[in-house]
């Protein structure tokens, strides 16, 4: 992505101790993360609206908590890009170009929704992880902190969703066999 340096940066250059080339590289990575996060936010809200079946109540409420968390994170990621002196992507065209997530055409079943959200959180985690080394190399602790926090949330959410797909606990399976 050809990240634009803001007009305000031309009027008064950003002088925070991170070279412009590093700030641009970090912002490019954060822009891909923002696109993943926004796409995952919308996917989760879509599934909140359209989930059906016996697990409706559980999933409807769970997806609501998840999309609210993702919505808040959009702002944190975008404003970190701005603090680095670069404009943040903010429309569907840019997000579609930048995201690594797939978009579904039809309404999936409840189990398929869970599987798709696990994949979405894992994909977003991989994007976040790929940017951490770039931020650390440039001593950009605030970005590294933000990425670490995002990783914790994506990995934990993926685990919780993945657990919904397991029929029974390993202990229960062992007890049944005995
Ligand atoms: Fe709602």
Describe the structure.
The protein is mostly helical. It has a domain of 117 residues: Ferritin, CATH 1.20.1260.10. 74% of the residues lie in helices and 0% in strands. The chain has seven helices and no strands. Helix 2 packs antiparallel against helix 3, helix 2 packs across helix 4 and helix 2 packs antiparallel against helix 5. Bound molecules: fe (ii) ion. Fe (ii) ion binds next to loops.
Give the SSE layout.
Elements: H1 7-11, H2 20-50, H3 56-83, H4 92-98, H5 110-137, H6 141-164, H7 170-177
Bound molecules: fe (ii) ion (FE2).
Residues 48, 64 line the site of fe (ii) ion.
Keywords:
mainly alpha; Ferritin; binds fe (ii) ion; 7 helices
Quick overview of this protein structure:
The chain is 74% helix and 0% strand. The chain is an all-alpha fold.
CATH class of the domain at 40-51 and 61-165: Mainly Alpha
Compute the number of helices. Answer: 7
Report, as a whole number of angstroms, the end-to-end distance: 58 Å
Ligands bound to this protein structure: fe (ii) ion
CATH third-tier fold name of the domain at 40-51 and 61-165: Ferritin
Shape: elongated
* Integer-rounded radius of gyration: 19 Å
Q: Extract low-pLDDT stretches.
A: none
**Quick one: how many beta strands?**
0
Query: What fraction of the residues are assigned to beta strands by DSSP?
Result: under 5%
Q: Would you identify the CATH architecture of the domain at 40-51 and 61-165?
A: Up-down Bundle
CATH superfamily of the domain at 40-51 and 61-165: Ferritin, core subunit, four-helix bundle
Q: Quickly give the structural class.
A: mainly alpha
Q: What's the pLDDT, averaged over the residues?
A: 93
Tell me about the largest β-sheet. Answer: none
Which bin fits the share of residues in helices? over 70%
Order of helices and strands: HHHHHHH
